[in-house]
Each structure stands twice: as C-alpha cells, then as structure tokens.
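Quick log. Single chain, no ligands specified.
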Amino acid sequence: MADLAEEIRVEITQAAENDELDLPTLPEVAMKIRETAEHPDVSVAMLAEVIAQDPSLAAQIIKVANSALFKGIQSTEDITMAVGRMGVDYAANLATGLAMRHMFQATSELIDRKMRDTWNHAKDVAGVANVLASSLTKLAPDQASLAGLTHSIGALPVLSWAEENDHLLSDEATLDRVIEQVQAPLGTMILQHWNFTDDLVRVPTEMGRYDREVETIDYVDLVQVANLQCVVGTDHPLTQLDWSKVTAFPRLGLSAEQAHETLSELSELFQMSKEVFG
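-> predicted structure:
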C-alpha cells in the first residue's frame, strides 16, 4: 500500500511539474467578481450586480450580512445593501470562496464523498479563522475566511485524478495518503495559478509547519489554529499535537493553556460563523 501511494504521488507530482495535470480553474462568477473588485472605479453596485448573476451565491452573501458576524445591523434581503454592509473587499473575498463550492462534486460515490468532506471541513476552518481574525488580531477577517476555504484546495486535482484512475477508488487509505502527501504543493500551485496574493498562496504549503518562526502573525497562523480547533473532539491525528509547540499561539498572544480557555470562550461565535459558511 505504501509503495502504491508513493508511486501515485510521483506520478501526480510529475504530471503537475510537466503541466500535464489539469488544475482546477475558478468558477466564471468568481473570476468576474475578482476582476470587478480589482477595477479602480469599482462600486458596491457594480460588485453586487456581478454577484447577483448567481442567485444562490447572492443568497449566501445576504445570509452572512444578516448573521452575527454583522450583529446589531438591521436585516436586509437586498444584495446591494448586503455588499455595502460588508464592503467591496470583504464581499469579493467571501463570494470568491463560496463560489468554489460547485467545484467539489464528482460522479463516483467515494470521490464525491471525499470532495464534500473536504469542502465541509474547509468551510468550518474558514468560519473559525474569520472569528480568530476579528477577535484576536488586526488581520482582515475576509482574507482569513478565504485562506480557510482554500487551504486544502490541493486535494481537488488529486480527487479528480483518482476518479479517472479506478485502481485508487477501491483503496481509500491509499487515496488519503496520496492526498496528505501532495495536496500542499498542489494547493500553492493552484493559488498561484489563480493570482491570489502571496499571503494566501503560502498557506497550503506552510500550514503543516507548526514550529514555523515568522516575525508577525499571518493567515497561515490563523488557518493552523482554526484547523486545530476544528478537529478537537475527533480522532484526527492532529488532536495528539502538543499545543505548547505550536508557535502560532504566542503570535496570537496566547500560551498553550490560555489557548484552550480562549478558544473555548469563543466556541459560540465559532459555531455561528461555521453555520454562516454552511
């Protein structure tokens, strides 16, 4: 099994390096959203018009605008008001991430389940990262959400490749091992291909380095901590990680002991935020 996983890892890696692996592309509505948001004369109305082209996406943006993330503001059902409430940058980043949900679908039962599990976990990480950014840092919550939604995007081409290679479908353990080994570099490659900013591009590759040393807190730190929080109470291997060795916590101003207490205090906000992204 280990030999097969290594063989597949090499095959996928070489295909990516030779531009022979089909990397996922952003949905058309997401590309239009990003192009509009980057226009020097962009307005709330302009961005809202683009988002409104996808009624389901517009409904999700309105849901977020009416959520506890923007508590204390009167409810609205108007996409322009929702975008205005968030601001152009926040709405564009959120809409970009949420538009990716259609990418995580497959025809085979195993791969479709894997894609849905990957997307659902990414949404949870995005929700927690959003709260961490707004509660404990000066980093942009919308960027934190987008970092969370895209941190495992490298699994997508592996799963798409596996759907076309039946010898993986009968061995879920091998598939999981391959994803674990290659999703980080593929994720960075994809985000570079999408012209994401450097602070998001490095998240997939660096989020597994829990002893990393950087001068100031960044989105990698937020995704790391969000990911750790999202696996609490499960049988995930990361639950065995010693939090005192996770350097992101001191950059959040927390010791390992304080981290458990603080994250517990934020648990209600985490849950509300995850439901928003759901």
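Residues 2-22+106-277 form a domain with the Hypothetical protein af1432 fold (CATH 1.10.3210.10).
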